[in-house]
Please model this.
Amino acid sequence: MSKAALIVGAGGIVGGNLAERLLAQGWTVHGLARRPSFRQADLKPIAADLTDAEATRTALDGLDVSHVFISAWARQATEAENCRVNGGMVRNLLDAVGNAPSLSHVALVTGLKHYLGPFEAYGAGAVPETPFREEQGRQDVENFYYTQEDEVFAASSRRGFTWSVHRPHTIIGYALGNAMNMGVTLAVYANICRETGIPFAFPGSPTQWNALTDITDARLLARHLEWATTNEAGRNQDFNVVNGDVFRWKWLWPRIAGYFGVEPAPYGGSAQPLERTMADTAPVWKKIAERHGLIESDLGRLASWWHTDADLGRPMEVVTDMTKSRKAGFLDYQSTPDSFTDLFDRLKRDKVIPA
Model:
């Protein structure tokens, strides 16, 4: 059969950009979500709650796809619950679609918390030295990424498909209503600062301000997913995936400020979380949206203060090694400043933020 994909989380920052990539390359693409609402007209919607095994089997009954991409998770109150719920979702999915006659590969997207540990034990274990390499393995802590991986590995052994695991850093890309979206969050933050005169201050830790770091463009991640799932070198492998350049936030922050025409505040030497400083700004955004005719006036559907605080508040350096992918043949590169400005330009074109 021709290439046919099932993307779990097709409305998110990873799944949405992957869907755009695969559709442009001529794939047939099915998108699964609890309440499908996708921007791509050619994306075939499937409604399913993966926590419900029977409903998942019913929703996927008779679906034949060659590739499955898992790019969704459900945040829970504790990591034990994260493991139970998110592991169960992957198990229910693969039990339902694992017997598809044409299924050849399953790709799982996780992230660098594979090395850093989960939110409730962030950096608490023996965090390996940077740059993070795939050979460094797992932390000795509960982590739903590991549970998801184990479900994929077990289903692969039962069903005979190959697998790949993809570990991006902070993902920058186009998505709305996404709970883990630094790019849109910073764009909204800059516009609120410009509107109110609140200083455009870097909210993170001294380490993140001064140390080297990197990010992952969602478009590059989409290309990496397609490459790994359609090439022999990507089969049954785990891969880090980042843009390929490094930067310091103290260098990039003034450039983001300049894009939006705001003055970057001097760094104060300690973290100033956005979840606190932006707590009462929903009415400000609503006024901005109404005045400029923007498509989304609900600040909660655009800005993920807590997630950006978690990324920028890290007390350790986070840099990622891409040697394994390079040696296997994936040579794509993406300029990080362009990742941000390309996103900001698109948000303006789509009237998500003021032009």
User: Anything to note?
Assistant: The chain has two domains: 4-168, 174-214+246-319+334-350.
